[in-house]
Amino acid sequence: MKKIITPYAADFGKPNVVIKHFPDNESYVLIPKIENYKKENVLVCHRLYPEPDKRIFELLLVLSRLKGLAKHVELYVPYLPYARQDRENKKGEAISADVLCRILKSAGVKKMITYDCHFLPRPGNFKRKGLTIENRSAGKQLMKYAKKNFGGEKFVVISPDEGASYFTDNAHRHLRYSLKKTRGASKARGVKTEIHADIHKIEGDVDVKGKNICLLDDIISTGGTIMRATKHLREQGAKNIIVGAAHGLFAGEKIAEKILQSSCDKIFITNSILASENSSKDRRIEILKLPKS
Ligand code: R5P
User: Fold this and answer.
1) Is there a smaller number of Cβ atoms within 10 Å at the N or the C end of the chain?
2) How far is the CA of 26 from the centre of ligand 1 (A)?
C-alpha cells in the first residue's frame, strides 16, 4: 500500500505532501507526483489534533485529490477529535461524531484506523454513519509501562468511569475496578449546559488502602476527571498513583503539571497528539510511541 504522510505525521515517515498556510491562514495542499497514486491502494497518515478544524479541512483537501484517482483509500489518524459529542444530550445539539464520520466516508475513506475512539466501547472493527473504523487500543502498551514502572510490585488497575473500563481488561493478575463518574452543570459557575460541565462526583468503594494504583483513561483533556479520581483514591488511602491515557490533549494551562502537583506520581500517554505539553522535559511525563501505521 502506498503511503501519503502529511507534515503532522512526520514521525511516522518522511512527509510527501505539502501543507502550507496563506497569509490569511487558509490552508494549501499539494500532493507532488499525484499520478503515482492512480489506481493504487493508499494509506493517508495524518494527525487531527491540535487545531482539529484546520487539520480536518487539510485532510479533506488531501482526500479531494485521491477520490476517483486512487483505487482504495484508508486513513490513519491516531486520535479522532469530535468523538465525544456522540449523542444528543440536549435537544438541538449537533452530533459531531456523526458529522465527521459522514464527511470522511463521502470524501472517499474506505477505512479509518484510529486509537481508543471515544464513541466506541472497545477495540475492534465498527461502522458509524457508513464509515468503517478499525479501533485499536493503546491499553496493552499502557499496562506494559505500568508493570515496568512498579517493578515486580502488585498494583491495582482502575478506570475513572465505565466508558474507560475496557482499559482494565489488560490487568490480568492485578486487581481491577471501575469508578463511577457523574457529570453535571456547575451551579457555582453558572454553567447551564452539560457540555464541558464540571465533574460532580467520582465514587466507588475500592480497596486501595496502602496499594499502588494505575489509573487508566482514554483521554486527559482538562484533567478534571483524573484529578477528581486521584483525590478520591488518596482519600481511600491509596499509596502511589500513576496515570496513563491514550490521548493527552491537556486542554488548558499547564494541565499535566497540575495533575502531577495534585496527586499523582507519573503521567504516561501516547504520541497520538503532537502538542507542546507532550514534549515536556518533565521526567514524570512519559510519551509512549504508537506504531507508525
Ligand atoms: C470521558 O468520559 C473520557 O473518558 C475522559 O474521562 C474525559 O474526556 C476526560 O476529560 P477531562 O480531562 O476534561 O475530565
Assistant:
1) N
2) 31
CA distance 292 to 167: 22
Closest CA to 221 of 141, 282, 164, 291: 164
> 153 with 212: CB under 8 angstroms?
yes
Residue 7 near residue 44, CB atoms below 8 Å: no
pLDDT digits (tens, 9 = 90+) for 74-118: 999 999 999 999 999 999 999 999 999 999 999 999 999 999 999
- Its pTM stands at 0.93
Cell 452543570 belongs to 185
35-44, 173-182, 208-217: least confident range: 173-182
Distance (angstroms) between ligand 1 centre and the Cα of 89 equals: 16
DSSP assignment, residue 168?
Answer: G
Binding site membership of 98 for ligand 1 (Cβ less than 6 Å):
no
Q: Compute, in angstroms, the gap from residue 42 CA to the centroid of ligand 1.
A: 33
Q: How far apart are CA 31 and CA 20, in angstroms?
A: 12
Partners of 113 in beta bridges: 76, 134
The ligand 1 atom nearest the CA atom of 223:
12
Is residue 195 pLDDT above 60, yes or no? no
